[in-house]
């Protein structure tokens, strides 16, 4: 049990198992009163819980991290003062029970499950909830664990001007005698508490009927023009995804209504059944680039996939979190390629998200995909690139290992047999194993119970496999792509299909000049080809005929860079060489971002300007091509160094306010601080969060007072919106060339992050993991490591510190600072 302070207790696995064995919950009837949030901060709720107990006379507790004002159990008054650290004792249970708990929650500004936001432009108030993993207990009394599923019936009393959204369609809206309106919603299916939701405010709404579904989109009034711009894209991808998943999984989505609500000051998105909540940063303030649209489509399909993986069938406990997140991530990319216009998404994933999986898995914060989760606080730490990106890659490997047809047949059986229930890992691998006729027990143990990344190295006609630290490797199913240099191009000779078992596998290779290990990216492993092939790959990566192959070549160069096997200059040369000929929208932008990352963070300080100039020159050239211009201009804005770069940007920014802000930030970082220009941008920008854009420009300056202002907004006020905007602030704040000004903030970071433990997941992850310093020295590294290892350090903080230290060490070594 996590019990390091006086905050609410974290539910342990043992406690959850005991409560599951004792109880069966029939339904929750929850009456929210949102009217106190119009001008104040109080959310009131009355939760009526109907449940059964297998051992009459026994006791348990219900979760409620709010002030209990009244409670009755089977008509008998309970003493609210017995509530302790988020738990209300329930003595002397009967076989059939009705519990009624009325509670009041005033912590509605911190995003601990509930967030009340005032739009700065028009002062309209919006309220959203997000309950994963155990935040539902902050809004209403419940048994907050994933395997006590129940029907939920919600009502909400709201101000007259507000729209209220929940999981199911509303069945009535009635006037209340004491003011406001009462919204009543249809019963949900049997859901875990963490995927329930209530969102409210004077939303702008768009609705369309697509593919037999009633699709809704909501946003705050000040962003309605952006939702109008993007609505058709969201409706189209949503229609495509619902049709794809319904057919492939053999189970259509279980209700007609499917809403998506874009809310302020939220990072990421949340897969509430029938009512997905997004941070509205994804309504990009300037016309989105191709890659930004692809990312939005990916989030859309990830959260939609959760309607099956997570909502319809839910992991029994948080040690199988990957059953939710890895599958949703895999399904998102799979459906992007199969059902939408974003057919290059496997290459884009390899060039972006998968590299983050490798980054975390190579460091001390690595953990098995199926981790040990003794309590919910540990579950928070596992919402990371292991559960998401590595998990996604491992599922693609399972599909290749078992065969895609058998894999999908197993998934259909899994959904059919476990609908509205809870599962463990063995339920899924058993279904896939039965469909493929294979015993997956060994595969399961190797891939899901062991941490770290294997290395696959080609040595002549032998493919060598080494497990993490040189240990026992996993079994792999992969391809070796074979290419010949032929008249100035690379000609595909063929693919050699390989299934490894053990440390060495002999392969029969045709005559070729380049052998690409793990071509088509079917497995999760660090790959190395023979020296002759490596020379060709680094020099000719852009000539590989398939985008996944090109992405794999670039990813290999990047992996060699972070492991000290390749210099930053050589890695950058490889990436920029590919960009000489690359024209696929889906990977040009990720490659440009990677080039900028190498130039800024894996380059000695004295050489940063020269390397950024190389990146900017490449971006400037690509920006002259209409299909690539938007993404290339963003890269140019981040790396511009020469007058001609800024002239090109200024011309483009006349009609692109988002680009104009980025150019202003780059100028400010280089000492060209124009306060009047910032004021003109503020006057021109209709974005309700434009003041934050101005703050980002000021934070870019190489001045202590500039960093202090940003720090106060981030940590004291917590006024920087989560998600896209926070990412821009982080990049503006941590600039390696500003090391001298930034060094004092490294130790201040260590003072701040422990205070954030246990906070709202989708916002504070940016302030914990995202804000890990990008400059440092040995003292900071030692202090961060010591804090991570202190007894009682929150698991989320510990993982962020250990992973951050490992990554920073690699950057400092590449920069020659360690």
UniProtKB/TrEMBL annotation:
EC main group: hydrolase
Limits of the Peptidase M1 membrane alanine aminopeptidase domain: 237-447
EC number: 3.4.11.2
Catalysed reactions, as listed in the record: Release of an N-terminal amino acid, Xaa-|-Yaa- from a peptide, amide or arylamide. Xaa is preferably Ala, but may be most amino acids including Pro (slow action). When a terminal hydrophobic residue is followed by a prolyl residue, the two may be released as an intact Xaa-Pro dipeptide
Protein family membership: Belongs to the peptidase M1 family.
Cofactors, names only: Zn(2+)
Example GO biological process: proteolysis
Domain ERAP1-like C-terminal residue range list: 515-807
Source organism phylogeny: Bacteria, Bacillati, Actinomycetota, Actinomycetes, Propionibacteriales
SUPFAM superfamilies cross-referenced by the UniProt entry: Leukotriene A4 hydrolase N-terminal domain, Metalloproteases ('zincins'), catalytic domain
A GO molecular function held by the record: metalloaminopeptidase activity
Keywords: Aminopeptidase, Hydrolase, Metal-binding, Metalloprotease, Protease, Zinc
Pfam families, alphabetized: ERAP1_C (PF11838), Peptidase_M1 (PF01433), Peptidase_M1_N (PF17900)
Protein name: Aminopeptidase N
Gene source species: Nocardioides islandensis
UniProt GO cellular component terms: cytoplasm; extracellular space; membrane
Aminopeptidase N-like N-terminal domain segment(s): 121-195
């Amino acid at each position: 049990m996590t019990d390091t302070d006086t905050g609410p207790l974290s539910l342990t696995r043992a406690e959850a198992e005991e409560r599951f064995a004792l109880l069966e919950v029939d339904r929750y009837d929850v009456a929210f009163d949102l009217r106190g949030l119009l001008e104040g901060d109080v959310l009131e709720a009355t939760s009526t819980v109907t449940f059964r107990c297998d051992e009459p006379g026994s006791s348990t507790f219900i979760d409620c991290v709010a002030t209990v004002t009244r409670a009755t159990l089977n008509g008998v008054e309970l003493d609210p003062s017995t509530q302790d650290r988020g738990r209300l004792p329930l003595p002397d249970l009967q076989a059939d029970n009705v519990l009624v708990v009325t509670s009041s929650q005033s912590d509605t500004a911190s995003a601990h499950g509930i967030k009340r936001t005032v739009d700065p432009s028009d002062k309209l108030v919006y309220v959203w909830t997000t309950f994963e993993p155990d935040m539902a207990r902050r809004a209403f009394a419940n048994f907050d664990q994933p395997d006590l599923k129940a029907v939920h019936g919600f009502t909400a009393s709201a101000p007259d001007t507000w729209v209220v959204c929940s999981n199911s369609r509303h069945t009535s809206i009635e006037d209340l005698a004491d003011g406001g309106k009462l919204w009543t919603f249809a019963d949900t299916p049997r859901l875990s508490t963490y995927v329930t939701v209530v969102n409210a405010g004077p939303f702008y709404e768009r609705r369309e009927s697509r593919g037999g579904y009633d699709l809704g989109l909501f946003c705050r009034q000040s962003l309605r023009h952006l939702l109008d711009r993007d609505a058709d894209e969201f409706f189209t991808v949503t229609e495509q995804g619902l049709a794809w998943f319904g057919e492939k999984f053999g189970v259509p989505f279980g209700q007609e209504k499917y809403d998506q609500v874009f809310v302020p000051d939220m990072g990421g998105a949340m897969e509430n059944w029938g009512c997905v909540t997004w941070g509205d940063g994804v309504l990009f303030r300037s016309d989105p680039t191709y890659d930004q649209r692809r990312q939005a489509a990916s989030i859309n399909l990830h959260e939609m996939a959760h309607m099956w993986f997570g909502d319809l069938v839910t992991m029994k406990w948080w040690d199988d979190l990957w059953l939710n997140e890895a599958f949703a991530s895999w399904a998102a990319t799979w459906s992007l390629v199969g059902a939408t216009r974003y057919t290059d998404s496997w290459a884009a994933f390899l060039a972006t998200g998968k590299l983050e999986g490798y980054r975390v898995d190579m460091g001390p914060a690595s953990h098995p995909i199926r981790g040990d989760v003794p309590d919910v606080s540990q579950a928070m730490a596992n919402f990371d690139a292991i559960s998401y990106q590595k998990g996604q890659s491992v599922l693609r490997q399972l599909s290749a290992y078992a065969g895609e047809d058998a894999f999908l047949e197993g998934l259909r059986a899994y959904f059919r047999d476990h609908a509205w229930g809870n599962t463990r890992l063995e339920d899924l691998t058993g279904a896939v194993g039965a469909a493929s006729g294979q015993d997956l027990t060994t595969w399961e143990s190797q891939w899901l119970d062991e941490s770290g990344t294997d290395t696959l190295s080609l040595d002549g006609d032998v493919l060598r496999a080494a497990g993490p630290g040189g240990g026992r490797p996993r079994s792999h199913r992969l391809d070796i792509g074979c290419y010949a240099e032929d008249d100035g191009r690379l000609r595909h000779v063929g693919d050699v299909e390989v299934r490894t078992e053990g440390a060495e596998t002999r392969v029969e290779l045709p005559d070729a000049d380049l052998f690409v290990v793990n071509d088509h990216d079917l497995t999760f492993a660090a790959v190395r080809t023979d020296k002759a092939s490596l020379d060709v790959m680094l020099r000719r990566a852009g000539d590989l005929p398939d985008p996944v192959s090109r992405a794999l070549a670039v990813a290999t160069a990047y992996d060699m860079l972070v492991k000290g096997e390749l210099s930053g200059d050589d890695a950058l040369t490889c990436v920029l060489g590919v960009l000489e000929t690359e024209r696929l929208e889906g990977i040009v932008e990720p490659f440009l971002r990677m080039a900028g990352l190498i130039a800024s963070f894996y380059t000695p300080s004295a050489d940063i300007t020269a390397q950024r100039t190389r990146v900017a020159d490449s971006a400037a050239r690509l920006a002259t091509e209409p299909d690539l211009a938007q993404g290339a201009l963003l890269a140019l804005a981040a790396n511009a160094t020469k007058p001609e770069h800024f002239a090109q940007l200024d011309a483009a920014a006349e009609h692109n306010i988002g680009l104009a802000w980025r150019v202003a930030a780059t100028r400010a970082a280089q000492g060209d601080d124009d306060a009047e220009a910032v004021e003109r941008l503020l006057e021109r920008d209709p974005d309700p969060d434009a003041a934050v854009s101005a703050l980002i420009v000021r934070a870019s300056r190489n001045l202590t007072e500039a960093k202090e202002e940003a720090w106060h907004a981030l940590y004291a006020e917590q006024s920087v919106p989560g998600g896209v905007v926070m990412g821009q602030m982080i990049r503006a704040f941590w600039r390696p060339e500003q090391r001298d000004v930034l060094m004092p903030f490294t130790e201040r970071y260590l003072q701040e992050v422990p205070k954030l433990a246990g906070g709202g997941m989708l916002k504070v992850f940016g302030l914990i993991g995202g804000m890990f310093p990008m400059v440092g020295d040995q003292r900071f590294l030692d202090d961060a490591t010591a804090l991570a290892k202190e007894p009682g350090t929150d698991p989320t903080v510990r993982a962020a510190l250990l992973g951050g230290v490992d990554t920073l060490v690699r950057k400092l070594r590449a920069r020659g600072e360690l």
